[in-house]
Amino acid sequence: MLKKLAKQILGPFYYQNPSIVWDFREWIELGGDGKIIKDYQLSNWKEVKYSPSSILPDEESLCFEEAVPPFPRYLGFTRNASIAGDGFVFFSDGCFLLQPVWFADLLKKNPIYFKRLSGLKRVKKAGAYFSSLLFWCGGFYHWVAQVLPRFHRVIDDLPADVHIIVPQTMEEWKWESLKAIGIPKNQCVPFQTNEIWDLEEFWYAPPVALSGDHERESLVWLRSRFVADQNTNENASKSKIYITRGEHSSRRVLNEDEIRPILEEFGFRIVDTGALPLDEQISIFKNASHIISPHGAGSTNMLWAAEGSKFLEIFHPNTLDRRCYWTMSQTLGHSYSYFVGKKINGLVASPDSEYLIETERFKDALEIFSRQ
After folding, report:
1. Which CATH number fits domain 227-371: 3.30.2350.10, 3.40.50.360, 3.40.50.200, 3.40.50.300?
2. Best-predicted range by mean pLDDT (130-144, 226-240, 243-257)
3. Phi-psi region for residue 346, left (φ > 0), alpha (ψ -120 to 50) or beta?
4. Domain boundaries, given as residue ranges, for the chain
């Protein structure tokens, strides 16, 4: 009782509820001290058809939400913005920008948003800065499908001396990916998560689409920066790839050894993308005609395959609402179908738990998939 009373009395001194705007343009329209430097006209968005096809007629239905159209593209500028936490952006008037965090609940439950005193060291940063940080940007899918496409068009209009803020931890493949789109390592500054950076000049471009959705022009641009021959040689031998989750503890196919002979019978090569450098992943997938993958970041490699490739996604029964690779395949012009695994008896089935593939049903699915 006393604790609750103390919180009510002292709360205003410790907690805050700052204003939130969805994007940078909205902040300007509400009186924020910034400006739009350039708007970008992109090709017309084609609505993603809401009918993912099961590979077998008796398959469980998916429950995807409909895809959200890509965001308007522009480059904005302001002075005295700040960066904190997982790429949170807030302005000198205290207002937080929601877009880099995606969803309000992710922002509001973070102490950087609701605590008046964060305990983080504030550091003034002179010069011009552009932040690559987006919530979840550490993972392969989020980096490749969300962080890198954000530089499409924008990269040519940023100041020559701009510093690119990158995550504190940067694996070698991330440095390689930035180099491929024209950003050298010496232009980047890893963000320190135990600090708040107060930036003298802040340049901003929205993500190209909501997390889980995609925009075609930026993905095609990205592919062109990595795959030397955009029109893959029609005479090159086409490959069929199955992506194993290898040593991943989440969403792992527990009886994968039982389906290996079936995959080999139908000519599929088993690839652990998590164990390969980025350039080798690209080399493998750029000539893939058929790709099978349990839901996971390895599916992002469909980006390197030529338009019209076939993609079969395997779902854990508790992840039937995750649409990101369906929308990606549709955006890229690939053919999409899905297969649902089976829960393990006696195991509490969370979205990230292991699951089984029924071998006879899987063989029937491959009979159909291989003929596509």
Report:
1. 3.40.50.360
2. 130-144
3. left
4. 15-50+71-212, 227-371
